[in-house]
Protein backbone atom coordinates (compact mmCIF):
# COMPACT_ATOMS: atom_id res chain seq x y z
CA UNK A 1 0.00 0.00 0.00
CA UNK A 2 1.54 3.30 -1.08
CA UNK A 3 1.15 6.61 0.73
CA UNK A 4 -1.93 7.74 -1.19
CA UNK A 5 -3.68 4.40 -0.80
CA UNK A 6 -2.91 4.43 2.90
CA UNK A 7 -4.19 7.99 3.29
CA UNK A 8 -7.49 7.05 1.65
CA UNK A 9 -7.71 3.96 3.84
CA UNK A 10 -7.32 6.14 6.95
CA UNK A 11 -9.80 8.81 5.89
CA UNK A 12 -12.39 6.14 5.13
CA UNK A 13 -12.42 5.35 8.86
CA UNK A 14 -14.20 8.66 9.40
CA UNK A 15 -17.04 7.87 7.01
CA UNK A 16 -18.14 9.38 3.72
CA UNK A 17 -17.75 12.98 4.89
CA UNK A 18 -13.96 12.52 5.15
CA UNK A 19 -13.42 10.56 1.94
CA UNK A 20 -11.64 12.65 -0.73
CA UNK A 21 -12.75 12.93 -4.31
CA UNK A 22 -11.29 10.37 -6.70
CA UNK A 23 -8.84 12.86 -8.25
CA UNK A 24 -7.87 14.62 -5.00
CA UNK A 25 -4.48 13.97 -3.45
CA UNK A 26 -4.43 13.10 0.24
CA UNK A 27 -2.02 15.24 2.25
CA UNK A 28 -0.77 14.94 5.80
CA UNK A 29 -2.78 18.04 6.77
CA UNK A 30 -6.00 16.18 5.99
CA UNK A 31 -5.24 13.86 8.92
CA UNK A 32 -4.59 16.56 11.54
CA UNK A 33 -6.49 15.41 14.64
CA UNK A 34 -6.90 11.88 13.27
CA UNK A 35 -5.97 10.03 16.47
CA UNK A 36 -8.59 12.06 18.35
CA UNK A 37 -11.20 10.07 16.44
CA UNK A 38 -10.46 7.13 18.74
CA UNK A 39 -10.77 9.03 22.04
CA UNK A 40 -11.07 8.18 24.84
CA UNK A 41 -10.57 4.40 24.88
CA UNK A 42 -8.52 3.94 21.71
CA UNK A 43 -10.96 1.29 20.49
CA UNK A 44 -10.33 0.60 16.82
CA UNK A 45 -6.93 2.28 16.64
CA UNK A 46 -5.36 -1.11 16.00
CA UNK A 47 -6.83 -1.02 12.48
CA UNK A 48 -4.80 2.11 11.69
CA UNK A 49 -1.56 0.15 11.57
CA UNK A 50 -2.71 -3.11 10.00
CA UNK A 51 -1.48 -2.14 6.49
CA UNK A 52 1.90 -0.92 7.80
CA UNK A 53 4.95 -3.24 7.92
CA UNK A 54 5.71 -3.90 11.60
CA UNK A 55 2.58 -1.96 12.46
CA UNK A 56 2.45 -3.64 15.87
CA UNK A 57 5.39 -1.48 16.96
CA UNK A 58 3.53 1.73 16.13
CA UNK A 59 0.43 0.38 17.87
CA UNK A 60 2.38 -0.42 21.04
CA UNK A 61 3.70 3.14 21.09
CA UNK A 62 0.33 4.84 20.77
CA UNK A 63 -1.72 2.76 23.20
CA UNK A 64 -0.48 4.65 26.30
CA UNK A 65 -1.78 8.01 25.08
CA UNK A 66 -5.32 6.69 25.39
CA UNK A 67 -4.60 5.12 28.75
CA UNK A 68 -3.70 8.52 30.19
CA UNK A 69 -7.09 10.04 29.29
CA UNK A 70 -9.79 10.43 31.91
CA UNK A 71 -13.06 8.98 30.48
CA UNK A 72 -15.05 11.38 32.66
CA UNK A 73 -13.71 14.25 30.56
CA UNK A 74 -15.67 12.87 27.61
CA UNK A 75 -19.14 12.66 29.17
CA UNK A 76 -20.19 16.29 28.73
CA UNK A 77 -21.02 18.52 25.80
CA UNK A 78 -17.42 19.65 25.37
CA UNK A 79 -14.56 17.16 25.13
CA UNK A 80 -10.77 17.62 25.03
CA UNK A 81 -9.24 18.33 21.65
CA UNK A 82 -5.77 17.10 22.62
CA UNK A 83 -4.24 14.33 24.69
CA UNK A 84 -3.56 16.26 27.87
CA UNK A 85 -1.66 14.52 30.65
CA UNK A 86 -1.42 15.58 34.25
CA UNK A 87 -3.90 13.26 35.92
CA UNK A 88 -1.21 11.53 37.97
CA UNK A 89 0.95 12.96 40.74
CA UNK A 90 4.73 12.88 40.55
CA UNK A 91 7.19 13.79 43.26
CA UNK A 92 9.94 16.34 42.69
CA UNK A 93 12.47 13.51 42.97
CA UNK A 94 10.65 11.54 40.24
CA UNK A 95 10.56 14.55 37.92
CA UNK A 96 14.21 15.39 38.47
CA UNK A 97 15.13 11.75 37.91
CA UNK A 98 13.29 11.69 34.59
CA UNK A 99 15.10 14.85 33.52
CA UNK A 100 18.48 13.37 34.40
CA UNK A 101 17.61 10.13 32.61
CA UNK A 102 16.55 12.04 29.50
CA UNK A 103 19.90 13.84 29.40
CA UNK A 104 21.81 10.56 29.60
CA UNK A 105 19.70 8.87 26.93
CA UNK A 106 20.08 11.80 24.56
CA UNK A 107 23.84 11.69 25.07
CA UNK A 108 23.73 8.04 24.06
CA UNK A 109 21.67 8.83 20.96
CA UNK A 110 23.94 11.62 19.70
CA UNK A 111 27.04 9.57 20.47
CA UNK A 112 25.83 7.04 17.88
CA UNK A 113 26.25 9.60 15.07
CA UNK A 114 29.42 8.95 13.08
CA UNK A 115 31.90 11.63 11.97
CA UNK A 116 30.92 11.41 8.30
CA UNK A 117 27.18 11.54 8.99
CA UNK A 118 25.20 14.49 7.61
CA UNK A 119 23.88 15.12 11.13
CA UNK A 120 27.35 14.97 12.74
CA UNK A 121 27.87 18.70 13.31
CA UNK A 122 24.48 19.20 14.93
CA UNK A 123 25.01 16.08 17.07
CA UNK A 124 28.38 17.40 18.28
CA UNK A 125 26.84 20.71 19.26
CA UNK A 126 24.04 18.94 21.13
CA UNK A 127 26.53 16.74 22.96
CA UNK A 128 28.49 19.83 23.98
CA UNK A 129 25.33 21.43 25.39
CA UNK A 130 24.28 18.25 27.17
CA UNK A 131 27.73 17.94 28.74
CA UNK A 132 27.45 21.55 29.96
CA UNK A 133 24.26 20.91 31.93
CA UNK A 134 24.98 21.17 35.63
CA UNK A 135 21.51 20.97 37.16
CA UNK A 136 17.95 19.77 36.65
CA UNK A 137 15.53 22.24 38.25
CA UNK A 138 11.86 21.53 39.03
CA UNK A 139 9.97 24.84 38.92
CA UNK A 140 6.91 25.95 40.90
CA UNK A 141 3.60 26.02 38.98
CA UNK A 142 3.37 28.81 36.40
CA UNK A 143 7.09 29.51 36.16
CA UNK A 144 7.93 27.51 33.05
CA UNK A 145 5.47 29.57 31.04
CA UNK A 146 7.53 32.67 31.80
CA UNK A 147 10.67 30.98 30.47
CA UNK A 148 8.82 29.90 27.33
CA UNK A 149 7.62 33.45 26.70
CA UNK A 150 11.14 34.81 27.07
CA UNK A 151 12.35 32.19 24.61
CA UNK A 152 9.67 33.18 22.08
CA UNK A 153 10.84 36.78 22.25
CA UNK A 154 14.53 35.86 22.22
CA UNK A 155 15.25 37.86 25.36
CA UNK A 156 17.30 35.27 27.27
CA UNK A 157 20.85 34.70 26.06
CA UNK A 158 21.06 31.56 28.22
CA UNK A 159 18.37 29.74 26.22
CA UNK A 160 19.63 26.85 24.11
CA UNK A 161 18.03 25.34 21.00
CA UNK A 162 20.93 23.05 20.07
CA UNK A 163 19.40 19.84 21.42
CA UNK A 164 16.01 20.52 19.81
CA UNK A 165 17.58 21.34 16.46
CA UNK A 166 20.00 18.42 16.52
CA UNK A 167 17.25 15.92 17.30
CA UNK A 168 15.10 17.26 14.49
CA UNK A 169 18.02 17.11 12.04
CA UNK A 170 18.98 13.58 13.05
CA UNK A 171 15.47 12.14 12.82
CA UNK A 172 14.86 13.91 9.52
CA UNK A 173 18.00 12.28 8.11
CA UNK A 174 16.70 8.86 9.21
CA UNK A 175 13.22 9.25 7.72
CA UNK A 176 11.91 7.98 4.40
CA UNK A 177 9.36 10.58 3.37
CA UNK A 178 7.91 8.28 0.71
CA UNK A 179 6.86 5.66 3.27
CA UNK A 180 3.14 5.25 3.89
CA UNK A 181 3.51 6.21 7.57
CA UNK A 182 4.63 9.73 6.56
CA UNK A 183 1.02 10.63 5.76
CA UNK A 184 0.37 10.46 9.53
CA UNK A 185 3.02 13.06 10.44
CA UNK A 186 0.49 15.83 11.14
CA UNK A 187 -1.79 13.39 12.95
CA UNK A 188 1.07 12.55 15.29
CA UNK A 189 1.94 16.20 15.84
CA UNK A 190 -1.67 17.11 16.60
CA UNK A 191 -1.82 14.63 19.48
CA UNK A 192 -0.19 17.20 21.74
CA UNK A 193 1.19 19.91 19.40
CA UNK A 194 4.57 18.73 20.66
CA UNK A 195 7.26 17.53 18.26
CA UNK A 196 9.05 15.40 20.84
CA UNK A 197 5.88 13.52 21.74
CA UNK A 198 5.36 12.97 18.01
CA UNK A 199 8.97 11.80 17.60
CA UNK A 200 8.61 9.30 20.42
CA UNK A 201 5.40 7.82 19.02
CA UNK A 202 6.84 7.52 15.49
CA UNK A 203 10.22 6.12 16.53
CA UNK A 204 9.88 2.79 14.64
CA UNK A 205 10.17 4.73 11.35
CA UNK A 206 13.63 6.17 12.08
CA UNK A 207 16.04 3.91 10.26
CA UNK A 208 19.15 2.78 12.09
CA UNK A 209 18.12 4.20 15.46
CA UNK A 210 16.27 1.27 17.00
CA UNK A 211 19.09 0.77 19.49
CA UNK A 212 18.01 4.11 20.99
CA UNK A 213 14.27 3.48 20.72
CA UNK A 214 13.60 4.49 24.34
CA UNK A 215 15.74 7.63 24.40
CA UNK A 216 12.66 9.87 24.54
CA UNK A 217 10.69 7.73 26.97
CA UNK A 218 11.57 9.99 29.95
CA UNK A 219 10.23 12.96 27.97
CA UNK A 220 7.02 11.10 27.20
CA UNK A 221 6.70 10.20 30.88
CA UNK A 222 7.10 13.87 31.85
CA UNK A 223 4.44 14.78 29.31
CA UNK A 224 2.14 12.12 30.76
CA UNK A 225 2.58 13.69 34.20
CA UNK A 226 1.72 17.10 32.73
CA UNK A 227 5.15 18.75 32.54
CA UNK A 228 7.16 20.69 29.94
CA UNK A 229 10.91 21.21 29.59
CA UNK A 230 13.02 24.29 28.98
CA UNK A 231 16.72 24.04 28.11
CA UNK A 232 19.36 26.66 28.84
CA UNK A 233 23.13 26.46 28.44
CA UNK A 234 23.65 24.93 31.89
CA UNK A 235 20.26 23.94 33.30
CA UNK A 236 17.26 21.82 32.37
CA UNK A 237 14.06 23.25 33.80
CA UNK A 238 10.96 21.13 34.35
CA UNK A 239 7.59 22.76 35.05
CA UNK A 240 3.93 21.88 34.98
CA UNK A 241 2.05 22.85 31.86
CA UNK A 242 -0.49 25.60 32.36
What is this structure's SSE topology?
Layout: H1 3-11, H2 55-67, H3 92-111, H4 120-132, E1 135-138, H5 143-152, H6 162-173, H7 185-189, H8 195-202, H9 217-225, E2 227-231, E3 235-240
Helix pairs in contact: 3-4, 3-9, 4-6
Description:
The chain has 242 residues and is mainly alpha-helical. The protein is built from nine helices and three strands, in the order H-H-H-H-E-H-H-H-H-H-E-E. A three-stranded mixed beta sheet has the order 1-3-2. A hairpin with a 3-residue loop joins strand 2 and strand 3. Helix 3 packs antiparallel against helix 4 and helix 3 packs antiparallel against helix 9. 31% of the residues are buried. The mean pLDDT is 91.
Give the structure's gist in a few sentences.
The chain is mostly helical and about 240 residues long. About 40% of the residues lie in helices and about 5% in strands.
Quick tags:
3 strands, three-stranded mixed sheet, 6% strand, 242 residues, globular, 41% helix, mainly alpha, 9 helices
What is the strand content? 5-15%
- What is the mean pLDDT? 91
**End-to-end gap:** 41 Å
- Overall 3D geometry? globular
Query: Could you name the ranges where pLDDT drops below 50 across 5 or more consecutive residues?
Result: none
Query: With helices defined by DSSP (H or I, 4 residues minimum), what is the helix count?
Result: 9
Fraction of residues in H or I helices: 40-55%
Amino acid sequence: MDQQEYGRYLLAMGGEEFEPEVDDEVEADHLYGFFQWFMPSGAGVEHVFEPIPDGRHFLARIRPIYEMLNPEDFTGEYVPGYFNGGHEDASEATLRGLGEELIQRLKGLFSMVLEDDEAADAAKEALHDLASLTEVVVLPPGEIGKLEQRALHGTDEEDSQAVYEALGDLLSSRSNYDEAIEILSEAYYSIACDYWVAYYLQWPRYHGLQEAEDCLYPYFDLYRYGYNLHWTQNKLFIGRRS
